[in-house]
Amino acid sequence: MFSLLGIDNELEQLYEEAQQNKVAVLKARWTNGNYGCCSTRAPLVEKYRIEYTPEKKTLYLWGKLAVTIDQATQQAEISSEYSPSNYEKKVITWFSERAKRS
């Protein structure tokens, strides 16, 4: 279902890893503009991080807190300081729905 939204399968694997290990991180190369002469030499940065505790589940995108799910109420709180892209909105929606199922 989420593949129709364009959500990467790697997110599902990351979520499952976070359930087992309490924290899961996926790093990727990301540059804002050009990084020297070759973008392939850009440093790895944290693309997604999921933290899983008995009280809450959190999703970080590019190192910034994006959404927190309260385990008791299943309420999602999107960080007011995070301005997601359209794709990131889909990721947040996926994470919120996935957290409610587990």
TrEMBL record:
It comes from the Bacteria. This is Uncharacterized protein. It comes from Enterococcus devriesei.
